[in-house]
Structure formats: C-alpha cells, structure tokens
Amino acid sequence: MPPINSGDTAWVLASTALVLLMTPGLALFYGGLVRAKSVLNMMMMSFATVGVVSVLWVAYGYSIAFTTDRYGGLFGGFEALGLRGALDGVTGAEGHGIPVLAFAAFQLMFAIITPALISGAIADRAKFGAWLVFVTLWVSIVYFPVAHWVFGADGWILSKLKAFDFAGGTAVHVNAGAAGLALAIVLGKRLGWKKREGLKPHNVPMVLLGAGLLWFGWFGFNAGSALGANGLAGMAFINTQVATGAALLGWLVVEWMRDGRPTAVGAASGAVAGLVAITPACSTVEPIGAIAIGLIAGAVCALAIGLKYKLGFDDSLDVVGVHLVGGAVGALLIGFFATTLSGGTGDINGLLYGGGIAQLGKQALAVAAVGAYSFAVTWLLGYAIDKTIGFRVSAEAEAEGIDTAEHAESAYELSGPAGGGAFALAGIAPQAPVREEEKRAETVGAE
Amino acid sequence: MKLVTAVIKPHQLDAVKEALASLGVAGLTVSEVQGYGRQKGHTEVYRGAEYTVEFVPKIRIEVVIDEFDAGKVVDALVTAARTGRIGDGKVWVTPVEDVVRVRTGERGLDAL
C-alpha cells in the first residue's frame, strides 16, 4: 500500500469541511430570498438533504460513483457497499497518497449540495416528505451515476469523451439546474406568481451571509478538487477568487444599465454565478482567463434570470438562470480559455490560445448529455411522485405559509401585529394555527 | 377637547415631538402604521423583477388637547412634519367627549 502524504491529506480533510459548510450557506442564501412564512422549509430542504445523502452515500452512493467501472462508463460497481472495501485504501499519485475514506468524505459533500441546489426551484410549495423521497431517488438514479461519468477515473465523460470538468460544472451545476427546471415545471407556479404578490426576498443580509459562506466553502470545492496541497490547488484557488469578483461586477453592470440601480441581491447572485462558472474551468485557465469567464458569466446569468418570466415557469430562486446557465457557460468557455500556460490539468489549448474547436465540441456534448439526462429523469421522478404521494402542498397551506403547515414552526416572533414592542412586553403570543385534530378534540371535549 | 391624529414620515417624528413639546403638549401616543396615499407606494427590483410595495411605513401620532389650542397645535405639527416631498402624510382633528386619568380618576381638561 502506498504511503499517505500528510500535507495532501490535511488539505483534503480541510476542504471536505469547507464544502460541507456550503450547504448551510446555501440554506441561508435561499432562506433570505424567500418570504418570512417559508424560510424554515426552504432551509430544511438543504439541511435534511445533508442527512439523507450522508446515509445513502455510505450505503451505496460512493460505490456506484467511484468503484471500478463495469457498465461501459455509466456506472461503477457494488464492491464498496457500506464503504467496505474502502476502509484502509489509499488513492492518489505516488508520494501523494490520501486515504480513500478522506476522498469519499470529500466527494460526499458534493453529493449533498447538488440536490440541495435544486430546492431553490420549488420554493414555498413542496411537501417535505415528497422532497425527501425525491432526494433519495434523485441522487440514486441521477447524481451517483453522473458523478461516475464526470469524476470517476473510467467514467465516460472523463475517460472517453475527454471533456473537461475539474470540480463539477456539469456534474453539479448543469445537473442541478436542469433538474430544477424539470421540477419547477412539474410543480407549477406559486400562488400569486403572475402578479408577484409579496414574493420579494424577506432578508437580504441573510442572502449576503449565505453567499459569503458559499464563497468561503467554494475554495474547498475547487482548490480541494486538486486532491492535494500543490500548485494545482493554488491555481484553482486564485482562479476561483478572481472569477467570482469579476462575476459580481458583471452582474452589477447589467443591473445598473437595465434597472438603473445595482442591488445587494445582485452582488450576491453575481458572486454565486461566478463561483459556478469557474468550477469546471479553475484548473485549466490562467487568472486573466478566469476574470474573463467571471465577467461573462455574471453578465449572462443576470440576463438569463429574466427568461422564466418570458417562458412562464416559476424557477423560484433562479436555479436555472444561475446554475444551469452558469455551469454551461463555464464548461463551454473552457473551449476558449483553456491554456497549457496554466500548468494545470488537461493538455489542451482553447480557441483563444491557438487550439482547435474540437475541445469546445466535447464540452458542449458533456453539457448536453448531463443536462438532457438530468432533465428527463428528474421530470419522470417528479411526475411519478406527484401522481402517487403528491408533491405540492394544498393551496391553503401555501397561502398560510409552508412553515406552519409542514413543520408547525414559524421563523420569527417579530413579524406581524403580535411582534415586538408593547405586545411582546404584554406577553401576547402570536396566534398559533390550530391543527385539525386539536379542533376535533376541543369540540369533543366541549360536548 | 380635540383628538389630533397625524400620519407622518417616520423621519419627521423627532421634529414633531419637539414642536409639540415646545407648545406645552403634555403627552402623545405614537404607533407604527403602514399605508398609502395618492402616490401609491413604491417599486423595488430584485433580480430584475419589479415588486410594488403598496404599503409604505408611517408613524401615527395621536394627541388629545384643549380645543382652544387645536389650531396652534395642528399648525406646529404640519410645519414640523413637512418636507415638501411626496408622502408627507395627513393630519385630522376629531372631537373628544371625555378623558379620564386612570391613576387619579380626574376627568376632562384636568386629565390631560
């Protein structure tokens, strides 16, 4: 067994914790963007995903994604169920070995955040139980195989097509974005969507905090994907930073020109769009290329979020506009900005560095394959769940607020007439919604 | 006695309070309210989508005074609350039959 390199292992373990933090960060980002009456459900969709996927990953997810291919580059094997068979393994190049379990933990965090990203498309209206069923089926049928295609040593996108996706522009972002589009279509629009009645974000500072935590955690996502403390990690790290800053600016410029004002929500959204776009490209472009990718992604995503109003689907928090479009932009721009100058992975030059058009074609095929597979399977899953157990809450529950309807909780004591000030001093509690069973019990008692 | 009710811009509360105090008005009640007048709220833009905020936050002031002071108090209040821009608010005056000070039981003007 090759020796374990302690420096590389330390960086991968630290990166793993960083990537985990992205999911609570995403919960804050999404939570701030919804209304006060549905913030808990929004955040719970992310938090509960941590629980579900952690268990499934150990049970069979890791095995499907990362054990030796048996099925033509589509699926891994079943020899690491329960992570047995991986318990004392070492992976990585000679002299840079890391424990397989550290790698498995790192990749688990990617498997967690990908379905969590989808939840933004169906804000305010999905039954919590149906969401858990969806996450279970979706990671099993969509994410685990797609992770094998893109990240597995013998997956077809990595080893046969040789499209480039360093940290998951296709496997994570195009995948989640296409799934979000399918689910938004299956679940339909929220009440009041057409007139946008009261659908505005309820806590913009929370959106910024969430975006900040995503940005912080993303260094683990991208630089951690080097799987070692090395030059590649340094390259991915600086590219992640500058692309994100540039995308923030790109988004603000579009807002300033189109709407007359640059917004805080726009700055946060632009940063996330930049992080998404640089994810596939961060190891194969130079920092100047990363800035260009960020600027383009920020501007394109700021324009793309208007599509849902034109096409008429309620992708509530713009999973399509930011993740599908941003991931595709990043993956495709590799075909232009990839350079061997970067000293990173991939021995390719993009169109702007004297390379041919072949790589761009491969990138487009990878985006199309992941997007089409994810959209089709997600639509079928969503449709099946909706027809069996029902995916959407009742109109009354949606109007009253999904937090009280699905979780019997409300996020804030401060909202509404029974909030702060004199009412709080008087100890007047907000009126709790009475459940149907309690109503019946009371009537029986009264008789 | 008269009840003077004013709905004003939140930022003007301090100025109004000072103006009323300098006239010897002994007490007042304020509350946070929301509403709109002829300007019908304002719009905000999130991710390129416009949202109309119909109800604008305002402060409501209520003060009960001797009816002989009513003209003076209303003038001072209006002067202090005015910025000259849209949304400065409204002031109205209604008659009050009786007032009781809870602690002592005093009635009428003595209770003010």
Which structural traits does this protein have?
heterodimer; A: 447 residues; mainly alpha; Ammonium transporter fold; 2 domains; two-stranded antiparallel sheet; 17 helices; 2 strands; 65% helix; B: 112 residues; alpha+beta; Alpha-Beta Plaits; four-stranded antiparallel sheet; two-stranded antiparallel ribbon; 2 helices; 37% strand
Walk me through this protein's architecture.
The complex is a heterodimer of chains A (447) and B (112). Chain A has helices at residues 6-33, 39-66, 100-118, 128-151, 156-161, 169-187, 204-223, 231-259, 264-281, 287-304, 307-311, 319-337, 358-388, 395-400, 402-407, 421-425, 436-446; strands at residues 90-91, 98-99. With 447 residues, chain A is mainly alpha-helical. The model of chain A is unreliable at 428-434 (pLDDT under 50). Chain A is globular and about 60 Å long. Chain B is an alpha+beta fold. Chain B has a single domain, classed as Alpha-Beta Plaits. Chain B is built from 2 helices and 6 strands. In chain B, the strands form 2 sheets. Chain B has a 4-stranded antiparallel beta sheet, covered by helices on one side. A two-stranded antiparallel sheet of chain B has the order 3-4. Chain B is elongated. Classes of the chains: A mainly alpha (447), B alpha+beta (112).
